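Appendix B, Record 12. Input sequence as logged:
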Amino acid sequence: ITVMKLSLPGVLTTIFVFIFPFVTSNQIFSPTVNAKYLFVLFSTAVFCLISVASLLYRKQEIFWRRRWLLLAFGLLILVHYVSMFTGVFPAISFWSDLLRSSGLLFLTTLAVLVFFWGELLTGRDWTWVKRSIAISGGLFSFLTILGVEGFGLSGRIWTANLDVAGLTFGNTTFAGAYLVLVLIITLIELMRSDAGSKWRKTLVVLAIIQFLSPLLINITPLGLGSARASSATAILILVYLLGRFLLYRFLTGKVKNH
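Logged structural output:
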């Protein structure tokens, strides 16, 4: 099944990654973290059913040989389970606590999700997934610029409460970590895009918006945003890319002169 030449798993994944940062609910104890936790569990269950059906329909085989990264990840999950059963509080290790929702159940869910993504998504699917992440991250960053740490606007836009520094992530640490990952993915897709294409120009704008989030950059002596660790990482990435670009221009110019 294809939509815009995307497979059904590709379409669902593209929608999933776009919606994810904005998932929140005032009907549960922790509106931001727990809502995303439940959203990932439910989405993975639906995705697994569709993926299994797709595998059976296509009669597609799953190859484990020479999939060293996948095998290493599976071994890591196995070690976690051994640690859980031999630990002091197996129940907490499996379920985690209410505020963090990062127990072994969640890690296993992510492992299953990543496994099916790796098996079923095509190259074109991954292109649109990365573009969806870039657009969603750009929108999230734009809302942080409008919010309490940026222009100081208040109120709600969609699910985002502009009065909260971390918007739909609840705090600046989680929101900053998300933005750094999004920025990296956007830059990777930017470097892989065709020169002069509309998508490259769009990705440039999105990367600038993401970097200008007050979570990552601010008017301080060091320029660090409110998410200090993520901000430092983003600045180092920018310095590295700028240095690489200048070195490339210097070396290519030197070759031309000779």
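The first strand starts at residue 2 and ends at 3.
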